[in-house]
Structures are given as structure tokens and as C-alpha cells.
């Protein structure tokens, strides 16, 4: 008879809230980590619409749920319902991890940790550099904060389908971090090739190219890339996006989103359990799982 995880009254419950949640690998990642560390926790997905968000957090307290990850579209909307938020989450304006400490809900942004851990080996090269970022949502905010706080970049080009949303982020960081070197662009202007080709780092901080729309890419123009660049896609499913394949063909150094996903998850894991996640084992298992499902 196969081994069945024993669940009891002492099992601690954590999970992810968002809508929709069809393609989340967070349950796989965290439940594997709990098994590897022999911790009595269970991680479940909860598909919660915006209308039910406040009630879901009340239920979290009532049921004694230890923690939640927060994903689209709740990262910004959840903040008013929390008791306290970390400095990074407050400045970014987005929460992706909640800790329930005896009914007091603390909000954190572990995406910042994931982004930093992914890019830190390139820190020297990125200092005083020009960066282009696709996207203007919660992930883009986390990217901008991380680059300003830890990498001291010279200039940021923020590119989005609706330039008005990018303008909001530009104004936001001008006020929050007194940084006035963000320039905004719509996604498809003729001069975007020049902007991208002169950037040391290009980041896709949007969902463009994510499963099941793998044929999409923020840019499909080869001249956007060159061998002096670092190109990072926060999308981890698929591991090799069209965006990264195009950049690699032009000689750019590419980074997929899997390390960021695991590292942000590891920080959430530690906030809930007080224990480190076995990052290397979890990373290898996730990579294998994603390849099997291609």
C-alpha cells in the first residue's frame, strides 16, 4: 500500500490565494519541501475572487491557517485587510506572503528576495546600468524596488501595453524612493528597438509568454538583443520562453524565472516555519516536473 501523508488536528495549513489558480506550481513546491524537511504542514490552493478576499482573510484567522501566498489579482488589494506590512511590501505596494501570528496578519513581499537572489551574481555589472522592464503590475513594482534598493541602476525604461499604468509606477517611485530616472513607453512604438538594444538588462515582468500562450513574447524583434546583455524572464512555465530563446540566439545571457520562483517560495517557507527550504532539491524537482509537462 502506498504511503499516505498523515493529516491530523496538529497539521498546519498554508496555501495560495488568487484567481485563477489553474497553473500554480506553489502546492507542488511547498508540499515537496514539507516532505523533505519532515514538517507537519499542508499547502493548498484557494481560488478566491476579489469580492471574497476580505472574507477569505477573516476565515484564515477563524480557522487558524498559518499563512498564505498571494498571487494575481490580489497582491495590491490585500494590503488594507492586513494588520502590518514589511518595509519592502509597503514601498512596493504589493504583498505576496501573509503570516498569521495568533490572529495578527503580517504582509511580506518575498518577490523582492527572489529577484535579488536571481540577479545578485551580476550586481557589479548592473550598477549604474540602463534597464528595460516589460510590465506595470505588482511584479514590475517588485523589480523596480529591487533594482533601486540593491543594484543602484542608472536609468529604467518601463514598457507596458497601456502606458498610463507605467506612468503610475513612475510617479509612485518618484514619491516613494525619490527616483526620477524612469522613462515610460507603450509596448509597440517604432523606436523601442533602440531603447532595448542599449539596455544592459532586459526583464519581462509581465505574464506575456506564460503557459498556455507560449507563442507570445514582449518583443519578437531580434535586433532588440545583443551579446552584451542580460535578459531575465520572470515567467517559469515554460522554462524556456520565446522571449528568452530569441535573446539567446542573439548571444545574450538569459535567466529563466524558475530560480526567482523557488527563492521567493523559500523565503515564504521560512517565514511560516522558521526553517530553511532545501532549495537545491526543490529546484531540481520543479525543473524536472516542468520538463515532463512540456
UniProtKB/TrEMBL annotation:
Q: Which residues form the Shikimate dehydrogenase substrate binding N-terminal domain?
A: 16-98
Alphabetized, the UniProt keywords read: Amino-acid biosynthesis, Aromatic amino acid biosynthesis, NADP, Oxidoreductase
Question: Per the record's keyword annotation, is Mitochondrion included, yes or no?
Answer: no
- Occurrences of domain Quinate/shikimate 5-dehydrogenase/glutamyl-tRNA reductase (ranges): 121-216
What SUPFAM superfamilies is this protein classified in?
Answer: Aminoacid dehydrogenase-like, N-terminal domain, NAD(P)-binding Rossmann-fold domains
Short name of any one Pfam family annotated for the protein: Shikimate_DH
- GO molecular function term, any single one: NADP binding
Q: Which residue ranges does the record assign to the SDH C-terminal domain? A: 257-287
Cited NCBIfam families: aroE (TIGR00507), PRK00258.2-2 (NF001314)
Protein name (Swiss-Prot/TrEMBL): shikimate dehydrogenase (NADP(+))
Organism for this UniProt entry? hydrothermal vent metagenome
Amino acid at each position: 500500500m502506498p504511503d499516505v501523508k498523515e493529516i491530523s488536528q496538529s497539521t498546519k495549513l498554508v496555501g495560495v490565494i488568487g484567481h485563477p489558480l489553474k497553473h500554480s506550481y506553489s502546492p507542488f513546491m511547498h508540499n515537496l519541501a514539507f516532505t523533505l524537511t519532515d514538517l507537519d504542514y499542508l499547502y493548498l490552493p484557494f481560488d478566491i475572487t476579489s469580492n471574497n478576499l476580505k472574507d477569505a482573510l477573516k476565515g484564515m484567522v477563524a480557522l487558524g491557517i498559518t499563512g498564505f501566498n498571494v498571487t494575481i489579482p490580489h497582491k495590491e488589494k490585500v494590503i488594507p485587510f492586513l494588520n502590518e506590512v514589511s518595509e519592502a511590501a509597503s514601498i512596493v505596494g504589493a504583498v505576496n506572503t501573509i503570516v498569521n501570528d495568533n490572529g495578527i496578519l503580517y504582509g511580506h513581499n518575498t518577490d523582492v528576495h527572489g529577484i535579488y537572489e536571481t540577479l545578485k551574481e551580476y550586481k557589479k555589472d548592473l550598477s549604474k546600468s540602463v534597464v528595460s522592464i516589460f510590465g506595470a503590475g505588482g511584479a514590475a513594482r517588485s523589480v523596480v524596488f529591487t533594482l533601486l534598493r540593491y543594484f543602484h541602476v542608472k536609468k529604467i525604461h518601463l514598457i507596458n501595453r497601456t502606458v498610463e499604468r507605467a506612468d503610475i509606477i513612475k510617479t509612485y517611485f518618484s514619491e516613494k524612493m525619490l527616483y526620477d530616472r524612469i522613462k515610460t513607453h507603450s509596448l509597440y512604438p517604432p523606436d523601442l528597438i533602440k531603447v532595448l538594444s542599449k539596455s544592459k538588462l532586459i526583464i519581462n515582468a509581465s505574464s506575456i509568454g506564460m503557459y498556455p500562450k507560449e507563442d507570445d513574447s514582449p518583443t519578437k524583434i531580434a535586433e532588440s538583443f545583443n551579446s552584451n546583455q542580460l535578459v531575465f524572464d520572470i515567467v517559469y512555465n515554460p522554462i524556456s520562453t520565446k522571449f528568452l530563446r530569441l535573446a539567446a540566439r542573439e548571444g545574450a545571457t538569459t535567466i529563466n524565472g524558475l530560480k526567482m520562483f523557488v527563492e521567493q517560495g523559500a523565503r515564504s517557507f521560512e517565514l511560516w516555519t522558521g526553517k530553511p527550504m532545501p532549495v537545491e532539491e526543490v529546484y531540481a524537482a520543479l525543473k524536472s516536473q516542468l520538463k515532463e509537462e512540456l
